[in-house]
Amino acid sequence: MAQAPATATKPRFQEDSLTIPPDVKVEITPPATVRVKGSLGVVEKDFSHAGAEIGLEGGVLRIRVYGRGRRCVARLGTVKAHIKNMITGVTQGFMYKLKIVQSHFPMNVKVQGNSLVIENFAGEKYPRVITLPEGVKVQVKGDDVIITGIDKYLVGLAAGQIELGTKITRKDLRKFLDGIYIYEKKVGMS
Q1: Helices 152-165 and 70-91: angle between axes, nearest 10 degrees
Q2: How far apart are CA 70 and CA 29, in angstroms?
Q3: Fewest CB within 10 angstroms: 85, 139, 148, 179, which?
Q4: 36 φψ region: left (φ > 0), alpha (ψ -120 to 50), beta (else)
Q5: Angle at alpha carbon of residue 113, lines to 159 and 186, rounded to 5°
Q6: What share of the chain is helix, strand, coil (3-state, %, to 5)?
Q7: What's the pLDDT score for residue 6?
Q8: Hey, CA dihedral for 19, 38, 158, 106, is it positive or negative?
Q9: 68-111 per-position pLDDT tens digit
């Protein structure tokens, strides 16, 4: 009696590797916390929620996500992209630029401690105060608000909070364009 041909089984995990630059130091704390040190500072993230198993072998970081199919591949790519962004952040940093647009009322924007204060926005009597996350540096230069930092998530969060904090409601947005809007995102702090 002839035997049926053996079919290849799919692996029970997806695996990928990432080469660590020589000027970056990576530490892994079980189960999946990654700490990256570079010339600009330290960034730490926990990937245990993604079901990732992360190991360090020499100068190569190995990422393994258990499961099969597209979702598993997507989780693996997400974890790898986050770690790449951490490495880029501690070596070069991130910068977001926002433009202050004012057509009806001249607004006054200034940084006070860890918050951004926007006075006279759309003629409002009370200032709008936006609390910024720790780890980002905000500067106001003329009509630009410049946000820099080493953690891409925190820099993007601060920019989004500022843009959302100056959102106009209950007015025709084609006419009332006042606000602070993101217009440039780049790698590097200069």
Answers
A1: 90
A2: 27
A3: 139
A4: beta
A5: 30
A6: 20, 40, 35
A7: 60
A8: negative
A9: 889 999 999 999 999 999 999 999 999 999 999 998 889 999 99
pLDDT of residue 117: 96
The distance of Cα 54 from the centroid of its chain, to the nearest Å, equals 20
Evaluate the CA torsion angle 182, 186, 187, 189 in order and state its sign. Answer: negative
What are residue 75's phi and psi, to 5 degrees? -65, -40
Which residues does residue 25 pair with via DSSP β-bridges, in sequence order?
37
DSSP letter for each residue of 81-96: HHHHHHHHHHHT-EEE
The pLDDT assigned to 8 comes to 67
Contact predicate 25/37, CB 8 Å: yes
- Ranges of the chain whose pLDDT falls below 50: none
Contact 83, 36 (CB under 8 A): yes
Q: Which domains occur in the chain, in start order?
A: 13-91 (3.90.930.12), 94-187 (3.90.930.12)
DSSP H/E element including 162 = helix 152-165
What residue ranges in 49-174 does DSSP mark as E strands? 52-57, 60-66, 94-101, 108-112, 115-119, 128-131, 136-141, 144-149
